[in-house]
């Protein structure tokens, strides 16, 4: 009888642990990018877990992704992302140089966008304005602005 109870407790603990892992498992962040003006080049995106580097320094990003555009859209996916608060910055790299090209005044010459589709007239979007909560599979649509 004691063995049966110990086995039962072990089974319950094992199942409880499995449920906990499923509840806290990492999930994907999927991004549909719309408004892409041309099919040349790629859409490059960076997923930031903090304000450090946002939106310009992809080396400070938690993850990066890239995708080709077709019919004005591109689909990106960041896999295995833990629950948390994030922001995405992306741009359409039309000349494939890996850089968001700007004019002499610093105004982008290539299309760009951020999560929550923040558009500021005189400054770039902040992390706080662009942040979203990721708990399970997250799907976002980001509009590229030229």
Helical run tally = 2
Measured as a percent range, the helix fraction is: 10-25%
- Portion of residues in beta strands equals 35-45%
CATH architecture: Sandwich
Task: Describe the fold and architecture.
By secondary structure, the protein is an alpha+beta fold. It has one domain (26-143): Immunoglobulin-like (Sandwich). Helix content is 18%, strand content 36%. The protein contains two helices and eight strands; from the N terminus they run H-E-E-E-E-E-E-H-E-E. Strands 2, 3, 5, 6 and 7 form a five-stranded antiparallel sheet that branches.
Secondary-structure map:
Blueprint: H1 2-23, E1 27-34, E2 42-48, E3 63-68, E4 73-81, E5 84-93, E6 112-114, H2 127-130, E7 132-134, E8 138-143
Parallel strand pairs: 1-8
Antiparallel strand pairs: 1-4, 2-3, 2-5, 5-6, 5-7
Overview features:
single chain; 146 residues; alpha+beta; Immunoglobulin-like; 3-stranded mixed β-sheet; 2 helices; 18% helix; globular; disordered N terminus
Task: Give a summary of the structure in a few sentences.
The chain contains 2 helices and 8 strands, in the order αββββββαββ. It has 146 residues and is α+β, with helices and mostly antiparallel strands.
């Amino acid at each position: 009888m004691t063995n049966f109870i110990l086995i039962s407790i072990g089974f319950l603990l094992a199942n409880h642990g499995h449920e906990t892992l499923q509840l806290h498992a990492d999930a994907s962040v999927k991004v549909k990018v719309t408004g892409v003006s041309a099919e040349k080049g790629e859409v490059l995106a960076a997923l930031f877990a903090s304000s450090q580097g946002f939106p310009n320094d992809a080396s400070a990003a938690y993850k990066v992704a890239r995708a080709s555009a077709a019919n004005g859209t591109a689909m990106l996916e960041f896999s295995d992302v833990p629950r948390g608060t994030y922001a995405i910055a992306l741009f359409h790299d039309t000349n494939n140089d890996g850089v968001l090209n700007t004019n002499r005044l610093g105004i982008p010459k290539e299309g760009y966008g951020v999560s929550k589709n923040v558009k500021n007239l005189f400054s770039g979007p902040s992390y706080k304005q662009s942040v979203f909560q990721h708990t399970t599979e997250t799907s976002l649509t980001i509009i590229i602005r030229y």
